[in-house]
Amino acid sequence: MPTLNLFTNIPIDPVIASDILKDATKAVAKIIGKPESYVMIVLNGGVPIAFAGTEEPAAYGEVISIGGLNPTVNGKLSSTIADILQTKLSIDSSRFYIKFYDVERSFFGFNGSTF
């Protein structure tokens, strides 16, 4: 159930999007310590974003998970996702924010119920 929502102002080619989804899924699963079969990545390209007063390439991300998040994990996730965005979309890490949410099971729905 870890979910990574990524938003960027860069239009994303479908092939690059597929690469980002695969790389991010593997990274989130490995770093948080959950199976890949539980991980969801949502990628939104071409979203209007201004950061530091400009519309230069930028991104915003949110990681939501039931457990598994802590300062060490969050730092690794932030660095790894920033590296993916730099490599695949040329977004500098100084133009990327990411927020982490560690939620209770009852606040995460799946299969018509909650965890």
UniProtKB/TrEMBL annotation:
Mitochondrion as UniProt keyword = no
Query: Where is the signal peptide, in residue numbers?
Result: none
Provide the E.C. number(s) assigned to this enzyme.
5.3.2.1, 5.3.3.12
Which keywords describe this protein according to UniProt?
Cytokine, Isomerase, Secreted
Tell me where it resides: Secreted
GO MF term list: cytokine activity; dopachrome isomerase activity; phenylpyruvate tautomerase activity
Q: Name one GO cellular component term.
A: extracellular space
Q: Which InterPro entries match?
A: Macrophage_inhib_fac, Tautomerase/MIF_sf
Catalytic reactions on record = L-dopachrome = 5,6-dihydroxyindole-2-carboxylate; 3-phenylpyruvate = enol-phenylpyruvate
As for family, the record states:
Belongs to the MIF family.
PANTHER family, alphabetically? D-DOPACHROME DECARBOXYLASE (PTHR11954), MACROPHAGE MIGRATION INHIBITORY FACTOR (PTHR11954:SF6)
What is the name attached to this protein's record?
L-dopachrome isomerase
Species per Swiss-Prot/TrEMBL record: Artemisia annua
Organism ancestry: Eukaryota, Viridiplantae, Streptophyta, Embryophyta, Tracheophyta
